[in-house]
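Table S2 (continued). Query chain:
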Amino acid sequence: MMPEIDGYEVCRRLTKMPGNNSVAARINQALSHNENVCVIYSDLDNFKAFNDKYGFALGDDVMMYTSQVLKDATLSINDDDAFIGHIGGDDFVVVVPSDRAQATADAISHQFDEGIVKFYNPEDAAAKCIQSINRKGEKQIFPLMSISMAGVDLSHGCYEQYIEVNDACAEVKKIAKGMPGGAFALDRRRRK
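Corresponding output:
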């Protein structure tokens, strides 16, 4: 009999990163200790189209690459205490000191954009796009993958529970994904 696990055991095995429950625990810890940290929620743009064209094995390689980019970015800003978690699929969370959030996001974006092209065949890389099938089953042209990030700064004292931070990340992620290419959108709310 399999032990009871959350629904993201495969993700943790693939990237060897903490999963959903650990992410929630880390954010709850930050909230309860009033830590000056920023939660950076990242999501890959056009990952499904890539997976559909190139297959799940290469998609798994992209997940491993993304996890390495996140690790490298936190090391580049000399933050050994950063927390990195893999929520599932192409969704990751990084928790860093608030004053290092922008530098972390910049490092992630730069390294991701620089290396992701290596996962494409030479023709697609040169064209900077692929033809794949959209969610309606129709052929469509998709740009190369990029990474969109939503930052929620807990030092502003706006949130008391993990679910509130999660909801804010989802809201800010919509803004980031609405920007062309990879982007970092930061929640600007402050306690009133």
